[in-house]
Design goal:
The structure holds two protein chains of two kinds.
Chain A: H1 2-29, E1 44-45, H2 50-61, H3 67-78, E2 81-85, E3 91-96, E4 103-104, E5 109-110, H4 111-146, H5 151-165, H6 168-179, E6 206-208, E7 211-213, H7 215-233, H8 236-251, H9 254-261, H10 266-278, H11 280-286, H12 289-295, H13 298-303, H14 309-318, H15 322-350
Antiparallel strand pairs in A: 2-3, 4-5, 6-7
Helix pairs in contact in A: 1-15, 4-5, 4-7, 4-8, 4-12, 4-14, 5-8, 6-7, 8-10, 8-11, 9-10, 11-15, 12-15
Chain B: H1 7-59, E1 78-79, H2 85-91, E2 101-106, H3 121-130, E3 135-137, E4 144-146, E5 149-156, H4 158-169, H5 175-179, H6 190-203, H7 207-211, E6 220-226, H8 240-251, H9 258-264, E7 267-274, E8 277-282, H10 289-294, H11 301-304, H12 309-314, E9 325-327, E10 339-343, E11 356-361, H13 365-374, E12 379-381, H14 384-391, H15 394-399, E13 400-405, E14 412-417, E15 420-421, E16 424-425, H16 431-440, H17 443-450, E17 455-457, H18 480-489, E18 493-494, E19 500-501, E20 509-515, H19 519-534, E21 538-544, H20 546-554, E22 560-565, H21 574-577, H22 595-606, H23 610-627, E23 630-636, E24 638-643, E25 651-652, E26 655-656
Parallel strand pairs in B: 2-11, 20-21, 20-22
Antiparallel strand pairs in B: 1-5, 3-4, 5-6, 6-8, 7-8, 9-10, 10-11, 12-24, 13-24, 14-22, 14-23, 15-16, 17-23, 18-19, 25-26
Helix pairs in contact in B: 16-18, 22-23
The chains are: A mainly alpha, B alpha+beta.
């Protein structure tokens, strides 16, 4: 087991280098360059400044160097073991060092700082969304399996499939256009994570002069409602189906018949015997959670004007800000690979029959 | 007993989590109170200092509230009126009350608001409320008047400068001198370096180079006399040192401000001539010198000098100045946080009515529109489609006001015809062909159908409200018959099917390249395609992503492109149309060369006398109209909605009047502190 884990861990390194190489290669081969940053708003250009900016960026960030040099420099910075520079800024010797995720040349900031700004919003959204998705998927999956072929099963299946088919983009826009609109029903706020006056509010809900004031905490939750709803509604359809199939499988298994035969009550059969054996597929799917937590959702963040990781990645790709793109890719792929490994290890714990020896 | 994770454990676990969250929330709340208390105590401190200063002034014999200096000072040729006359007038209006907030909705997110670093319109809009300039344009007459500076004087020294330049031009430039130029390729690119040196040796000494020589007299000097009572939002006096510092800060090559440096390059130096007197020396005579010196936002030396350039480049929300608003904490803003400015209670002039300016970010259109409908944001700049839709909405009309006007600093759209591709002249090298192209484009229909009527036909690069605009020019009409005639005069033929053939016998077809992802450009190009097809010319739409688009532009690798240029009250067209800019990397990407226009542009740029200069610009406009290097399409109008609780919002020649003149009567105020 230990040998297997070590082997898998070592395999992560070439996989990661391969991933970043492919991402970088795609960016390098794609036509276009940093030009977008030299343009003004609405596609107009301020003529006098473009050349000066281009020259400055080339000189400062070496953007006119060959692509492989740019990639190697980034890779060297991002690795814990690599060439370090001496006082004169020349590469002198191989040594262990603190990994550096590089800089955004568009914003002239370390990537790590930009991630630190964007991550909390994304994490908040995902941490709230994932329990909802799991709770609904598991409950509905079990229910559907229990009532297989009945109205409840078909109803749930159809509804979830329908929900799954609604594009997030459209749903988000409709949600804001109608349910955040004073002229229809103002159930949700329009954008962002806080109200305009949120910093003047008390923390908890209070009555100020007889009028209800929702307070900072409730205000934040209210702002989160619509994005979380949008992130959730399409998420559970697939998982619910998997859960249903897995429960059905186990319901017809021999040990269930035995349990029923020896007189175990139906709820106990369902939750003590069947359910425990049915969560294996959920482990597989859970391995996608960690990278999802960090990656965020580009569409939802865009619609609800939330400055999160999805938005950061999208902007970086548009602007060909390659160190930002590479570093985010690196972190997310690292997490994906580690999650998959953890999932594989979890199998052996959940099901003793699985072994990697 | 089996050790299982049961319901009881789950409940305990849940309770533990709730406890941890509560502790964390309590800490968070405590933190909020702490910040609040800190800002309160800072305010009390500031008030104490102010009271002390007032008392001291009273003890010393009265407070000097006037803005003019008592006697003495340097002689001035131009002195300015009260910069706050319009605010004073607004305050005298019936119902004027201070208070309420102004909430702006941005159509994108803001990445940086530190001066010089932000690089987008959102950043500069925020900075405009916090930082101030030496001069400001009068919104009605469009003339310059003093803001931080109370007077200024221009010393025209062009004659002496000319003599020096003429003498120096005869001295050949050396290789060593060439290699020290900033544009010289680095030593690791020997081939490019050699080519550069060769080209430069041939070219010789340029006027800019000679102008920067220490022994060269400045082409002109502008002396500014600053007001004695201007202070930053922390109460520190603004002096000549701050103005000099601003120049030095921008010119520091390590500061990420290459845009500003490319313009400031014309300045030879900024010299302190006294506590409240500064002199800008210019290396070359340039018509926008006064604007350049007068419209630079003055940075506080005591605040910004604390940063090393590399540290400063990394800042995102470091904004501090002498303006009517200030950041509550001038260092702390981070992207994603709410952007708000509070009224600068120690403002040296007449402050605005609003307590706060809040800027909200909307990354897509529907929420922004909805937020405006809900009254969450107070101003909305709309696209023509949005504007038309909202205009028809009666409910909205009852609670908002709207403005449509031609912005004097707005840009224009154009189609540029590439005259030289791969070293060979294209079919568009013939002026008659370009005129024919313009006549095939129905610009009125473009305005009516695509821009829904919100635009004005452009005849050249100058705004119709600018003095540069030659009023006698009539736009070419949409006239396919005359266009065909012109094409035939240029050697084109018409085949049996009515298709036009190029002089070389191939069918007349070209690609029109435009930025993808913008439905507006898309509609426009398809409109053109139809009208060209009617005349027997094939237009192939060629949408490209921005990044690709600019590469093609730089390589001059296109038939025709459509894009927009921004314009100013007085626009310099050197970069786009002067023949010297047709070289690699220049913005004359269509290789348009007209010696007559070159001389008009060069002359105009160095003529300081406005009347004489405008004659030259008018001439340039005429030449561009005759030559049609671009088909100048349209100046789009600015379309704005605003909540109607705001009073005294006026449309002036320079756009809307400043927000410091607006107010909300007490009974309509929405936001209370």
């Amino acid at each position: 087991m230990l040998g297997y884990v070590i082997r898998r861990l070592l395999l992560i390194i070439p996989t990661l280098i391969g991933i970043t190489l492919v991402v970088f290669g795609t960016m390098a081969l794609a036509p276009g360059d940093i030009g977008k940053n030299l343009l003004g708003d609405e596609g107009s250009m301020r003529p006098q400044e473009r050349e000066a900016v281009r020259r400055y960026l080339n000189q400062r960030f070496g953007l006119d160097k060959p692509f492989y040099m740019q990639y190697l420099r980034w890779l060297n910075n991002a690795l814990p073991l690599g060439m370090v520079t001496n006082e004169k800024g020349e590469y002198s010797r191989l040594a262990f060092k603190v990994p550096d995720l590089g800089r955004s040349f568009v914003r002239d900031r370390p990537v790590i700082d930009m991630v630190a700004d964007a991550l909390p919003a994304t994490m908040l959204l995902q941490v709230l969304t994932i329990p909802f998705i799991y709770a609904i998927a598991v409950t509905s999956g079990v229910l559907a399996a229990r009532h297989q072929g009945k109205l409840l099963d078909i109803g749930l299946g159809t509804t979830f499939l329908a929900l799954w088919s609604i594009p997030t983009m459209w749903a988000g826009v409709m949600l804001i256009g109608f349910l955040a609109n004073k002229d229809y029903a103002q159930l949700f706020p329009t954008a962002g994570l806080h109200s305009t006056a949120s910093d003047r509010m008390a923390f908890l809900p209070t009555f100020v002069g007889g009028a209800f004031q929702r307070g900072w905490l409730l205000d934040a939750l209210w702002h989160l409602a619509a994005p979380v709803l949008t992130l959730t509604y399409a998420g559970f359809a697939f998982m619910s189906k998997v859960m249903r199939a897995s429960v059905l499988d186990n319901l017809s298994a021999d040990f269930v018949r035995t349990a029923r035969a020896k007189g175990v009550s139906e709820p106990a059969v369902l939750f003590r015997h069947v359910f425990r054996n049915s969560i294996l597929p959920l482990i597989t799917m859970a391995s996608g959670l960690l990278p999802g937590l960090l990656g965020g959702s580009i569409i939802v963040e865009q619609i609800f004007s939330i400055n999160g990781m999805g938005k950061l990645s999208l902007t970086a790709i548009e602007q060909r800000d390659f160190e930002v793109v590479l570093s985010i890719t690196l972190v997310i792929s690292l997490l994906s690979l580690v999650s998959i490994l953890i999932a594989d290890i979890c199998y052996t714990i959940a099901d003793p029959r699985v072994s990697y020896e | 007993m089996e050790n299982r994770f049961g319901v009881k454990d789950f409940v305990l676990f849940l309770l533990l989590i709730v406890l941890i969250i509560s502790v964390w929330l309590a800490m968070k709340q405590y933190d909020r109170q702490w910040t609040e208390i800190r800002s309160l105590s800072a305010k009390v401190d500031a008030q104490g200092t102010d009271i002390y200063a007032i008392k001291k002034s009273i003890d010393e014999g009265g407070i000097n509230l006037t803005t003019t200096r008592p006697g003495g000072g340097t002689p001035t040729t131009l002195s300015s009126a009260d910069p706050f006359a319009r605010v004073r007038a607004a305050r005298a209006l019936p119902g004027f009350t201070a208070g309420d907030w102004f909430v702006e909705g941005f159509g994108g997110s803001v990445a940086k608001i530190s001066p010089l670093l932000s690089g987008d319109t959102y950043g500069s809009q925020i900075q405009g409320n916090v930082l101030e300039t030496l001069l400001q344009r009068d919104p009605v007459t469009l003339e310059w008047s003093g803001l931080i500076a109370e007077s200024w004087k221009i010393d025209d020294n062009v004659a002496a400068w000319d003599a020096y330049v003429a003498k120096r031009k005869t001295v050949p430039i050396t290789k060593e001198e060439v290699l020290t130029e900033p544009a010289a390729p680095p030593a690791d690119k020997p081939a490019e370096r050699a080519a550069y040196v060769e080209a430069r040796l041939k070219e010789g000494r340029t006027e800019e180079l000679i102008g920067h020589e220490p022994t060269c007299p400045p082409a002109l000097s502008i002396r500014f006399q600053l007001r004695p009572n201007v202070s930053f939002s922390d109460g520190t006096r603004l002096s000549a040192d701050d103005v000099v510092f601003t120049y030095q800060f921008i010119m520091n090559p390590e500061v990420n401000a290459p845009r500003e440096r490319s313009v400031f390059d014309r300045i030879k130096g900024v010299v302190k001539e006294g506590d409240l007197a500064v002199r800008y020396d210019f290396a070359v005579p340039y018509f926008e010198s006064l604007e350049l010196a007068g419209s630079t936002q003055v940075l506080a030396k005591h605040f910004y000098d604390a940063y090393k350039p590399s540290e400063y480049n990394e800042t995102v929300g470091t904004l501090f100045g002498s303006g009517p608003y200030k950041m509550e904490n001038p260092k702390d803003w981070k992207p994603g946080a709410l952007i708000q400015l509070v009224r600068n209670d120690r403002y040296w002039g007449l402050g605005p009515a609003f307590n706060r300016m809040v800027f909200r970010e909307y990354t897509s259109d529907v929420p922004r529109l909805t937020a405006f409908r809900n009254g969450e944001i107070d101003r909305l700049s709309a696209f023509p489609e949005q504007y038309d839709e909202l205009k028809r909405d009666d409910q909205l009309a009852a609670r908002t006001m709207r403005f449509e006007y031609l912005n004097p600093v707005g840009g224009y759209r154009y189609v540029a015809w590439n005259q030289k591709r791969n070293g060979k002249p294209t079919v568009f090298a013939d002026r008659r062909v370009r005129q024919a192209m313009t006549m095939l484009i129905d610009r009125q229909r473009l305005i009516d159908d695509v821009m829904l009527g919100y635009g004005v036909i452009a005849t050249g690069p100058f705004n119709p409200q600018s003095k540069q605009y030659e009023p006698g020019l009539q736009p070419y009409p949409h006239d396919p018959a005359r266009a065909k005639q012109l094409l035939q005069e240029a050697g084109c033929k018409v085949d049996a099917a009515g298709k036009i053939l190029k002089p070389d016998g191939s069918p007349f077809s070209f690609k029109l390249t435009y930025p993808s992802g913008n439905p507006n450009y898309q509609k426009m190009v398809f409109l053109f395609k139809d009208s060209f097809a009617d005349a027997g010319v094939t237009l192939e739409p060629d949408p490209l992503e921005w990044a690709v688009f600019t590469t093609r532009l730089a390589n001059k690798d296109f038939d025709a492109i459509t894009l927009a240029w921004s314009a100013g009250i007085e626009t310099d067209i050197f970069q786009m149309f002067h023949s010297s800019q047709a070289a690699a990397g220049g913005d004359n990407f269509i290789s348009y060369i007209s010696p007559e226009l070159d001389s008009a542009i060069t002359q105009a740029r160095r003529t300081l006398d406005e009347g004489a200069r405008m004659t030259l610009w008018n001439r340039a406009h005429q030449i561009l109209h005759d030559d049609q290097p671009y088909t100048f399409l349209v100046f789009p109008k600015t379309l704005l909605f605003m909540q109607n609780r705001f009073q005294n919002v006026q449309k002036l020649p320079l756009g809307l009047n400043g927000n410091e003149e607006w107010f909300v009567p007490a009974n309509l105020q929405k936001w209370k502190e």
